[in-house]
Amino acid sequence: MTAGAISAAEFARCLAPLLGDDKPKSIAVAVSGGADSMALALLTADWAKKKKIAVLPLIVDHRLRAESTKEARHVAGLLRKAGLTPKILTWDAKTKPTGNRQALARDARYALLADACARQGIRHLLLAHHRDDQAETLLLRALRGSGVDGLAAMQPRSLRGEGLLLLRPLLDIPKARLVSTLHKRKQGWVEDPSNANASFQRVRVRAALDLLAGGEAGARAELVQHLAQTAKNFARTRALLDAAAYDLLHEAVQLTPAGTAWLDPGVLAAAEDELALRALVKLLGAIGGLPVPPRLDGLQRLLEALRKGKDLPLTLHRCLLTQVKGDPRLLVCREARYLPDSQPLGSMLWDGRFRIAVSKPVRGVSIAPLGKDRPADMALLALPKVAWPSLPALWRAQSDGTRRLLAVPGLGWGQMPANVTISFQPALPAA
Questions:
Q1: Which of 79, 212, 300, 387 lies at a CB distance of 3.0 to 4.6 Å from 333, suitable for a disulfide?
Q2: Is 41 domain-assigned?
Q3: What b/e readout covers 233-254, taking b as 16+ CB neighbours within 10 angstroms?
Q4: 300 domain residue, yes or no
Q5: Could you list the residue range(s) of the whole structural domain that residue 75 is in?
Q6: 184 belongs to a structural domain
Q7: CATH value at residue 129
Q8: What is the DSSP code (8-state) at residue 418?
Q9: Within this chain, do residues 30 and 145 fall inside the same structural domain, yes or no?
Q10: In this predicted model, what pLDDT tens digit does every residue of 92-133 receive, in sequence order?
Q11: Is 237 helix (H, G, I), strand (E, B) or coil?
Q12: Phi, psi of 50 (to 5 degrees)
């Protein structure tokens, strides 16, 4: 197996399918300073120069070690010598984690990167995960008892938050070739000492791969390739299951513009467990507005209750499932708790469910949950009242310090400002 340097043409072929039809004016690259991310930054810079696209390298200083700030500045210096203009992002948390440090640091890193991209109006963030990382991720998730989704490991293209695309163009490239790329360019990099700290499970898994390969570089590369291929196989299986789950949802669920859904529990109850559970994950994610799935044990209890037809109402993942008198279906709506606080009206994704677009500033108007403050004429509206409190509502500030209800777009009630649109956009794409 070759460990040759990556050419500009090869990198372009890796990146092209991830961008698809997107034509960004600027793109960000997460750079830790290791060989992987340094190679990615340089390859991206060469590619972007030909495309006339701006590149923003982002360096995160976690400040978990005394040397981290110095190292971040050193990495920034390496990038500047390569003709790039990096930005250092600092994790300023007053209390740093003592347990589960890698996971918490990773969450903080992604939050900082996402915020930096949002501030710069950048929608594409390149990450340097490679084939060896994919193999390690597969093993780590297998050790945790993950199902199909977890064993599919990292995806080449994924969506984070309100629209940041995470792109991993190196996922099929072995680490050795990234190192070769830097050697060919005579480019230095830094080694993170935590990569040799055996207290971290990923480091132990990395060592286990060496042991399984008998210390032979060629055997290790082949083992990594097979594991990465296994992750691809699981990813294909996941795609098939997702498609079948969406078919089930189209049959069992009717969404409403108010951010609720009507569920035929009989259709869901008759489905195989894997498809029914997968469909529930997508339905609850859409109505609850949470970007992460609910726990499997809670899902299984919910499915069992739906099959037995009792114990209503039920709650899970910020969703309420309840029976409405005279209707055989179940109403699925957002719970009236953990809702966003009142905030000035602006373009945003409200509560993970409603996309708000404001073409011109609207003074004196805020958005907040409807709650219990409702005009009497709302009683004529068809949506069951149990779903009303969690709906987004527009409020106008009054001179006496109070507020007046202006509009409830999910109910079609009131007067919407002419330059404002609010629509329910759940994470439930068409099959």
A1: 387
A2: yes
A3: ebbeebeebbebbbebbeebbe
A4: yes
A5: 8-212
A6: yes
A7: 3.40.50.620
A8: T
A9: yes
A10: 866 666 666 777 888 899 999 999 999 999 999 999 999 999
A11: helix
A12: -70, -30
